[in-house]
Design a protein that fits this description.
The structure is a homodimer of 197-residue chains. By secondary structure, chain A is mainly α. Chain A has helices spanning 7-25, 32-39, 43-50, 53-77, 84-93, 103-112, 118-142, 148-168, 175-194. Chain A is built from 9 helices and no strands. At the A-B interface, α1, α6, α7, α8 and α9 of A face α1, α6, α7, α8 and α9 of B. Chain A binds a DNA duplex (30 and 30 nucleotides) through α3.
DNA sequence: AAATTGATTGTCATATTTGAAAATTTATTC
DNA sequence: GAATAAATTTTCAAATATGACAATCAATTT
């Protein structure tokens, strides 16, 4: 009984706002005031739902890692039945990218502070490895004759090219760059086509 | 007459400390206190040499862009007479990288705040373009038969793979990743060898 | 409509950050 | 060693950030 809980909803709203602030201002620059303003709530609500600052950071790390993993899953799930690698590049380097919430910037900021937050380090490493693996799996399925090591290298190249591009979106880079990124990513596919085991 | 000026030396020391703090804590998390502690001076000296916070940020941007350009030049200057592209990969993905001062992390943090500091945006874009051009030039010189567009794409892929790797060094990634990065970068060279105009 | 559970707001003390200026110290030249 | 220019330290006020807790408001159940 009693008033229905908004715990989940509010927590998600606040963490999304937090994510955005961290992307723009860095982990230590994402003050409670800023996050509260971004989320459109009073600062004291942050404490109510997420506890003190250390606990907020812990929650943020979990949230970011979960989102990262979720986006990896969505990306794979969105692939068609055929020509999956090309479609994957369309998703990563297409007009949108997965870049809704500047998530790679948040990841960078968390990574930069990972010496103070060990869980950020382990969580991000695991999430990235997970993405590497998912992409590598796609590649070796579509290029069954290619060397597995080559597939992993290609997957790595594609993933991190995407990370770099996504980090740079704040700079509003020229279209050239996006085209080159796409072409560079495609090079990895071409290489797998050409190089047999 | 009068006491000899330490302007240049102190300014450089402070900006280097500032750079490090921005890499770790983000632009807004790099407080004057932190920078002063990192530089080993009193906080008020920052003001003495660099003015108020906005002026400090402006100076930091100039410093970072200058360093970036300088490192690009050094990198090119360090290449041997022959097999320059391979040597370039050795520099970028070798045991050290150019990663002395976590400069790519600083660049990420500045980029993330570039909507508030237009000079960061223009400066970083120009410096990156400069690096792209330098690498592309090396590639097209060593692979004169390769398409110029392909060279640019390869240069882009190599540069940004490096950026991504360098950003991730704080996570102390497994050796695998570094190997894969190197191999992925090398793929771009192989592609230029194989693809003729 | 009374009780209850949780959302929301308000307040206060404390600590950190920043800005600004004055006072002091130190190294050089004449 | 007096004058001088610059480094360095000291000090104070204002703004911002955080933590902790109390008070109020709103929706649901019995």
């Amino acid at each position: 009984m009693g008033r229905p809980s908004l715990q989940e909803q509010r927590t998600a709203e606040i963490l999304t706002a937090y994510e955005l602030c961290v992307a723009r201002h860095g982990l230590d620059g994402a003050t409670q005031e800023r996050v509260a303003a971004q989320a459109g709530v009073k600062r004291t609500l942050l404490r109510h739902y997420l506890g003190n600052k250390d606990e907020m950071v812990e929650a943020l790390i979990k949230h970011v890692v979960a989102r990262f993993n979720s986006e990896t899953d969505q990306m794979i799930a969105a692939l068609p039945k055929t020509a999956r690698p090309k479609a994957l590049l369309d998703i990563l380097f297409g007009p949108l990218g997965i870049t809704e919430t500047a998530s790679v910037l948040t990841i960078n900021a968390l990574g930069a502070a990972s010496d103070r937050f060990p869980k950020a380090r382990t969580g991000l490493l695991a999430a990235m490895e997970r993405m590497h693996d998912a992409v590598a799996k796609e590649l070796s399925q579509d290029y069954p004759d290619a060397d597995i090591t080559a597939c992993r290298a290609a997957a790595f190249g594609i993933c991190h090219l995407y990370f770099s591009i996504d980090s740079l979106m704040m700079l509003d880079p020229p279209q050239d760059w996006l085209d080159q990124a796409r072409q560079a990513a495609n090079t990895h596919l071409l290489n797998l086509e050409g190089t047999l085991k």
